[in-house]
Design goal:
By secondary structure, the chain is mainly α. The protein is about 80% helix and about 0% strand. The longest helix is centred in the N-terminal third of the chain and has 36 residues. It starts with about 25 loop residues before the first helix and ends with a helix.
Length: about 500
């Protein structure tokens, strides 16, 4: 889902190392791909599998709606904050090393989540999980791109990588429902432990160590600013309904967000090797991909959060039945994600983005009409349409993010697109969850569908944003801005001797 590539500036403190041993046998390459896909699978499945467990967590640990939001957002927020840092750190000190550390951290965090005695401890352990997860996706993508050096083989490997995303989403709700229904909600975390242990052992045995010859310098101050910005924004949105939107605490957090953003942009502009290169935003396709990634994942995260509570709390379904109901959504993602990649390769990103925007908007409007007595067949059709719309949006996001970028910056651009996805997930749960919480009165069974209606409208608006931004940022004018941005970056690198 994300990528990290060797950036262009050398650091005298790190000895150059070859990216990978030349001429690895095909079987070894395929095994490395499988190991990397295992990491993506456990991180990807964790997003959908935990949503199915939320009502059970709520009952056992006495969680409020905002508490459930933090169970999800503690994970996605940390992922969004540290993806870029993980990629550059791996380039510096060793990709296999960081990959193994990430696997160990994710595995330990999963085991701790399975033993969490209270909601507070569960949220803390989710943070540990996410710290590990942030080291997996960008680093695994770097390992894949350095393993498969032949362009066609690399394209096929990345296609497999993308297919695993859909597979993990497809299995998440069903596996989560089965585990919660038979072994309890804690089992959705324990299932990661054996996979993580196997992946650690296989990586130690079969994945060669590698570093970037010219790794990026670390940007600790920029990293702190990013964490403070995202954490204060998400905290204010989640806690706003309970503490009051006009309370000094919430207003202070929003003010902190604004000040932090101003300082971050000013600081990053002055750095030779910024954590976030603001020049990328001069490219309309890159800026569009960022907005589309955020809004599309607002739709997904909002759907998973609200729909899980709707099926289990409002309609009274078991976790297993709720998981089975969402299978059409996840199945459509698994089927159409690779098809979308082929369309983007042959026709460009506009067609998938337009179709995605229309379907996300329409499906969210349909779901806004759901009641506790809506026929199941209508639910399934709505979920399938939503899954088709979401399934075709990922490939054009990555394509647009890297469109026209210099080769040396393509990995950083793709990693930023992945960060935008995680930010969208955090915002989706925070904004839509806060909307539902502020409007929910009485029992979930009696009032949930009315309380959730505005949340569905927000998702519809996000789908409309995908449609409009997709049209605006995929035309000839947008491509010209991408070429101009790439030329400016390459020219500056040439002048500075980078």
């Amino acid at each position: 889902m994300s990528a990290s590539s060797p950036p262009p500036i050398a650091d005298a403190g790190v000895a150059p190392a070859p990216s990978f041993p030349a001429g690895l046998p095909m079987r070894r390459q395929q095994l490395i791909l499988a190991i990397c896909c295992m990491s993506l699978f456990i991180v990807g499945i964790d997003a959908t599998i935990v949503n199915v467990a939320l009502p059970s967590i709520q009952r056992e640990l006495g969680a409020t709606v905002s508490g459930l939001q933090w169970v999800i957002d503690a994970y996605t927020l940390v992922l969004a904050s540290f993806l870029l840092l993980a990629g550059s750190t791996a380039d510096r000190i060793g990709r296999r090393r960081i990959f193994q550390i990430g696997l160990a951290c994710f595995t330990v965090g999963s085991a701790l989540c399975g033993m969490a005695p209270t909601l507070g401890w569960l949220i803390v352990f989710r943070i540990i999980q996410a710290l590990g997860g942030s080291m997996l996706n960008p680093v695994a993508m770097s390992i894949i791109t350095n393993t498969f050096t032949e362009p066609k083989a690399r394209a096929r490997a990345i296609g497999v990588w993308g297919g695993v995303i859909g597979l993990s989403m497809a299995l998440g709700p069903v596996l989560g429902g089965l585990l919660v229904g038979t072994a309890g909600w804690r089992s959705v975390f324990w299932v990661n432990v054996p996979i993580g242990l196997v992946a650690i052992a296989l990586a130690a045995r079969f994945v060669p160590e590698s570093r970037a010859p010219k790794p990026r310098r670390l940007d600790p101050f920029g990293q702190v600013l990013v964490v403070v910005l995202l954490a204060s924004l998400i905290y204010a949105i989640i806690e706003g309904p309970g503490r009051g939107w006009s309370s000094p605490e919430i207003l202070g957090l929003f003010a902190l967000c604004v000040v932090d953003l101003v300082v971050l942009l000013a600081y990053e502009r002055k750095r030779a090797e910024p954590l976030i290169d603001v020049r990328f935003f001069h490219s309309a396709p890159f800026s569009g991909a960022t907005v589309i990634a955020v809004t599309a994942f607002i739709c997904l995260a909002g759907f998973l959060f609200v729909n899980t509570l709707y099926l289990q709390d409002a309609r009274g379904y078991s976790a297993l039945v709720a998981g089975l109901c969402t299978l059409p959504m996840a199945g459509m993602v698994a089927i159409f994600a690779p098809i979308s990649g082929r369309i983007v390769a042959s026709r460009g990103p506009r067609i998938p983005l337009v179709i995605s925007g229309v379907l996300l908007t329409v499906s969210a409007l349909v779901m806004s009409l759901f009641t506790v007595t809506t026929p199941v067949i209508i639910l399934l059709v709505g979920y399938a349409v939503f899954g088709l719309g979401f399934g075709i949006v990922n490939a054009p996001i990555t394509n647009s993010a890297v469109s026209g970028m210099p080769r040396s910056q393509a990995g950083v651009a793709a990693a930023f697109a992945s960060t935008s996805r995680q930010l969208g997930s955090s915002l989706g749960v925070a904004v839509i969850g806060a909307t539902v919480a502020s409007r929910l009165h009485g029992s979930a069974h009696a009032g949930f569908t009315d309380a959730a209606r505005l949340g569905w409208y927000i998702m519809a608006g996000s789908g409309l944003c995908v449609l409009l931004i997709g049209i605006i940022t995929t035309g000839s004018w947008a491509r010209a801005t991408a070429r101009a941005t790439a030329a400016a970056i390459e020219g500056e690198q040439t002048r500075s001797g980078k």
